[in-house]
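Pasting as-is:
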Amino acid sequence: MARGCYARLSDSGKVVVMIKQNVKKRLTQIICIILAAMMVVGLILIILSGCSPQKQTEGGDSSVSAVQTGEEDPSAQDFVVLRGGEAVCSVIRPGLTTQSVKDAAVAIRRGIEAVTGVLPVISDDYLEPGKEADSSDLEILVGKTNRPESDAGITYTNYAGFSIFVSGNKLVVLASDDVGYKGAAEWLSNKLYDYYVRESGELVLPADFSVSGSGNSMLSTLPIYNTAGKIESLWDCGDSCLMYIIKETNSAEFEAYAAPLAAAGFVSTAVNQIGNNLYRTYTTPDGKYVLNTVFTAYEKKTRLIIEPLSKTALPDYETEYTDTAGPVTLTQVGLEYLYDPSKHISNYQIGMLYIFRLRDGRFIVIDGGYNKDKNLSLFVSEMKKLAADPNNITIAAWIFTHSHGDHVGLFRSLANSSERSIFTVERFIFNFMSKEQYTKINEGYPAAVYSGIANFKGAKIIKAHPGQKFSFGGAEIEYYSTIELVAPKDCDTGNTTSAVFSVTAEGQKIMFLGDSSNTMTDVLIKCYGNELKSDIVQVAHHGAPGGTVELYKLIDARVAFWPLGVWDYYNFGGRGRKNETWNAYLFSSPNMMEIILAGHSERTVTLPYEPTVKTFPPDPEPKE
């Protein structure tokens, strides 16, 4: 039988076979055409998907996005960027504008160059007196220029929004704020690839080109804060948390912001006030983000602090508990090694460690000493002594004031130790700043703390903010300051990141100053004044610079817990920390009854603690 594609007519018996082969070939061709068409459609869908590039920006899971909004107008004209490989448009920005608008204009110019290899002219919108702009000039207008096309009457209701559209011979780029302009520049620069024809050297945007979008999906959930003031800064708080700082505002505008938040579906979860400072907490309608709003009266600023709930948890405020352990106790643990000049300072310095045993038998732990085996042994031993069941210890909250090794080292040691098995930690509370800020002060990012936390399965992480309150087992924690109250200034030292908070239990208020620096102390004094009044105080920064006479006068405590070693107390600088001006005030304060030095011992007091006899460390130094 012939195997060719054609049959001989005289061979009638084989014609049917040849016809079947032709039909089969034809079907194969049709299938190939269909598959090719499907590939073309797929390619078109990929290109169209460029309308919403998912380029990651600050804010963790937030991204730049946009949607087409233009409608076809037969009378309108396309906007030509390049013709015949030559730039025929220029990039125009206002002469007086923000750095973000300038950066966006430059980014768009560079975006055109990246796509085409051609760099268009860029200039400000200056016009000689008496002259008007030429409406026939092809211009990309970035920001509120003096061209009439920039006055488009667009009103933004939320932050991070942007609009890009063709208007006559102009391509207009507008945004609600810095983030919007950055997002607009990124989006447009990516989108230009879709319209560039390399063979002809043409880049033309259609007359109906019009999009609206967001430079950051998290920030775009926030309604605009209605104020006569201005945005001072957008600050990266770390851990995917971002903060708008609005200056020249007031308490009335702060309170009024609740209305647009409610209209947008935000749910209020907490309200607080310390002195004239106001605090509110909200969650977004979808439960994806949490917003903390903070108004500081002395500087007339509002801070809008927003972060993903995948990175933090809401503060817990427990009002009910079972009293199994009696009154709350407070323990100061001295982790000091006896002084040996041949050893590094970490061998005898103590860091800082405080333990509250709550009425329900759980604990609050604050900080910890260096990452040393002896410190870990002392910590575990003390916890076992205080616990009802030494093999099953629950820590309701482990608080880190900041990330220095003499405050988090012990935790890192425990997290990687077999001793971890007897501890359950329900939540970790801290506020570490962004990696960028750590770099600026030449300090390492505390990655080891995060990895250590991961070893405590099921524990919550709460990034603390000013004004937040927590309650566990008969003790209330209230945050006064975190690094956000120093912003927008860059952090000047790791101690400026030290959080300041109070713990109130059994009717007494204990103020924890951590390693508060002079910078943070100055903020505390200006922000809170007499609201800092407390019964017990933890001496700031181990008695090194940070505490001030003015601060201790405002706190006016009756008892001071001093996380310092014996040698430093008596001998630092040849005169001892006790004689530093700010520390000397503690001894002369009319209200001070007892100063408890940590040294290499432990001291537990049952709250409320009311000493009746003045008791200070012995002077001169006792000889062992």
